[in-house]
Amino acid sequence: MVIVIDPQIAGISGDMLLSSLVNLGADKNKIIEGIMKSQKFLPDSTIKKIDFQKIQKRGIESTQLILEIDENISERKGIDIKRAIVNSVNQLNLSNKAKTFAESCIDTLILSEAKIHGISEDSVHFHEASSIDTLVDIVGISIALDDLKLFDEKIICLPVSVGGGTVSFSHGIMSNPASAILQIFKNSNLNIQGNNSKEELTTPTGACILVNLTNYPVEYYPSMKVSSIGYGAGQKDFENFSNVLKIIQGDENNFEMDNIKILETNIDDVSGEIFGHLIDKIMDQGAKDISIYPGITKKGRPTNLVCVICDDAKVDTIIDTLVSETGTLGIRISNSNRFIVPRTNHNFSLTFNGKSFQVNYKKSSHNGKIHFKIEFDDLKDMSKALDRPIKDIESFLTKEIEKIEGL
Questions:
Q1: In the structure, what pLDDT confidence band is assigned to residue 84 with cuts at 50, 70 and 90?
Q2: pLDDT of 243 strictly over 90
Q3: Which residues contact 11 (CB under 8 A, 6 or more apart)?
Q4: For residue 50, what are the contacts with CB-CB under 8 A and spacing of at least 6?
Q5: Is pLDDT at 127 greater than 70 in this prediction?
Q6: Residue 255: pLDDT over 80
Q7: How far apart are CA 180 and CA 205, in angstroms?
Q8: Cβ within 8 Å of residue 119, ≥6 positions away
Q9: Binning pLDDT at 50, 70 and 90, where does residue 23 land?
Q10: Which residues touch 146 (CB under 8 Å, ≥6 apart)?
Q11: Roughly how many angstroms between the first and final C-alpha of the chain, as a whole number?
């Protein structure tokens, strides 16, 4: 099963995510009861009313959190809010995953403030996040995720809309997204995007919850069969779009999916020997693949298109290699999702003509059919050691693997 979080249009806040989980099927009475038990851990804050109601947001029927509170406090230390959240999830007998999640969420929020202001985590004071709202969101979402048993599911996230314009808070006016939002997303793989709404669409609490729920970004929906949809409404209303967060639950087709970077550059003055060296070096640096294609560019000039597929973490290293080894003056970078047939790694040992070998192979399954691919370096080493053609070695090992796999 796969869970898709879709904040592309309206962004995300804690109450929107909580409401969407209730709309998806989480037990709202269990959530309300748990939150009401937790308010005792934050003195000077009282929940006068809490409920979830159906509401129309520009034609979309969704669920919205109704929360009325009475507070006589304008700031709290981050460690006090953390203590209240940890005590809350412990008293509710949630799963260990839910407890860890809740604590990680508030830790992320505290750490972002500490980084921004250059102070210790123990010294962080919250203003906008000092309200019991923060506890309600984190504790409520932890209960909802536990109730729906989503901690064990694959959760992916589309680009997160952060809005635009400016925001006003305790330290004055700042361009949106504010520093806290940027700091939270800085250490995640999730992608953010702005728009012309001139409003804050993603809140710090929503961001810290999101990055602890998933670190799996995608650019578009996966191939899946939709089973249920949750719509969580925010408090604001906009003219051009529904202020609604979508969560989609379904069965993913028999593919895995990951997010990759594609690096491309055109080279027209490098020899084949250099390209051969470049391929080896870039693969050694952790690239997933590299291809070089001949072509024609402007004024009929012959060229070679170098295309590298890699993880985000390898981009800087590989770019440095492309520039230093080829002298290129520009490299194009794009994001891409790819579907991958699930595969597993296997190996076995054998003795042939008195010589011992370790053979590695990958096995995949698709539409009920099993496929396998022998590691080429093992074929090459065995071919050299036995002085036999690679095709003969491959044919022999294929029969051995078929015996092992019972094919």
A1: very high
A2: yes
A3: 160, 161, 162, 163, 200, 201, 202, 203, 206, 234, 245
A4: 32, 35, 36, 65, 66, 67, 68, 136
A5: no
A6: no
A7: 10
A8: none
A9: very high
A10: 94, 95, 97, 98
A11: 29
